[in-house]
Amino acid sequence: MIEVFMQEDPPYKKNFMVYLMHFCIDVSILLILRKRVMYSLLFMRRFYPNDWRAVYITHADILLYGIYMLFIIVDSAAFVENLFRNMDYIFGVSEATAKPFWSWNWVYKSYPYAKSILLSCVVTILLATIFVENQRPEQEDDDEDDSDEVIHKTDQQQKP
Question: Which residues contact 92 (CB under 8 A, 6 or more apart)?
Fold first, then answer.
């Protein structure tokens, strides 16, 4: 289906399809991120029923949600700019009216850079979350002991 749409001759149609596909992908990832904890709990309860307490909301969830909102804003801005630049082809506006908008290319020229920066932010957040979660102290289950003491990895290694 993508090949059929990308074979269209006018470049504005190709740009329209590229921005639309990016927008749909980013919205679907945002919706998945919003329900990440629920999906993770369903998975853990089905395949690892004793470890379901390991799933919780982290700071990364909120940051990733915000970054994917920025992805959607960048996609929308590029889409709208494409509409303005090509309004004579798309909407049939006279050339005299459309000509001032032909030079609008701020988002078009910076689109790959903006997407790359946002994607590097996503990777950085994921790597930072992995690092922080590995440094996090382990906690005892409430079922085994009634004390609220936190057991650190270093304490476990020092005890004989």
Answer: none
Reported as a single tens digit per residue, the pLDDT across 126-141 is: 999 999 888 877 765 5
Torsional sign, CA 112, 118, 122, 123: positive
| Residues 138-151, mean pLDDT to the nearest whole number | 54
pLDDT band, very low/low/confident/very high, at 8 (cuts 50, 70, 90): low
Please give the Cα distance from 59 to 127 (Å, whole number): 13
Q: Which tokens belong to 99? A: 């000509």
Q: What are the DSSP calls for 9-76, one per residue?
A: SSHHHHHHHHHHHHHHHHHHHHHHHHTHHHHHHHHHHHH-GGGGGG----HHHHHHHHHHHHHHHHHH
Helix (H) or strand (E) holding 151: strand 150-151
Helices (H), 86-105: 87-90, 95-98
**Dihedral of CA 129/131/136/141: which sign?**
positive
152: Cβ contacts below 8 Å, ≥ 6 apart: 137, 138
* Residue 67 burial (C-beta neighbours within 10 Å; 0-12, 13-18, 19+): buried
The mean pLDDT of 80-96, rounded to a whole number, is 83
